Amino acid sequence: SSTWDQAFAGDRVLTAAMLDRLLHHAQVVQIQGDSYRLKDKRRAGILGPAQKTKEVT
What are the boundaries of each domain within the chain? Predict the structure, then answer.
């Protein structure tokens, strides 16, 4: 199961239905790197250093 499933009470069917409706007419843009908010929080010492993530294909 994915982390999305966990966000919706572990229900894969509910998760798939919600994401399907959300993304139906959307354009998905995949970006790499940290957001400006994350960078600002790290600079302020609120968050620790970035962790490596695996690439999704």
Answer: 3-43
